[in-house]
Specification:
about 25% helix; 7-stranded antiparallel β-sheet; alpha+beta; 7 strands; single chain; globular
């Protein structure tokens, strides 16, 4: 038997959704480059092959060291009407650390790093807002949020300037 809380919680859905002004079809190569930029320590420690992005239609699986994430691109609005948008990109944490409260910050750091790279420069990005699914918080995209997504101590730092939370 494993220790308390070490097996993860199947009900937790650690995911970051980028709400887009318009559809932005990212290629497998673009997602690969974003993952390599998001996780340079893995590339430096384990080599370029330690990060792999494999795409099939609108789904891309990213393996970064021991972590697996899914990037889903959808050309219709996310079911959230608080901010006008036309498409979205979901980044889901699939495998690696157990999905526990203990690993919440680690998982969000992985997701946020990849989301920040996929969003691109704040001044030219199609991203209008970021939705943190597990915590049900929507935050308008800005230079400040992009900076916080690249480095934060506590997950709550990502949630500054939230739009009214979904219940």
């Amino acid at each position: 038997m494993t220790g308390k809380g070490d097996t993860g919680d199947a009900t937790r859905h650690y995911s970051i959704v980028l709400l887009l002004r318009n559809a932005d079809d990212l290629t497998e190569d673009a997602i690969q480059a974003a993952a390599e930029a998001a996780f340079p320590e893995i590339v430096e420690r384990k080599g370029a092959g330690a990060i792999i992005a494999l795409q099939s239609d609108s789904i891309t699986i990213v393996r970064a060291g021991e972590d697996m994430m899914q990037v889903l691109q959808v050309a219709t609005p996310y079911p959230d009407e608080r901010i006008s948008h036309q498409a979205w990109i979901g980044i889901d944490y699939l495998k690696g650390k157990p999905k526990t409260a203990r690993h919440r910050t680690y998982i969000y750091r992985r997701l946020a790093a990849l989301a920040s790279e996929l969003a691109g420069p704040a001044e030219s990005t199609p991203v209008v807002a970021v939705y943190f699914v597990e915590d049900r918080v929507l935050v308008p995209f800005s230079d400040k949020l992009k900076g916080r997504m690249e480095y934060f101590e506590k997950v709550e730092e990502l949630f500054r300037q939230p739009v009214e939370a979904v219940h």
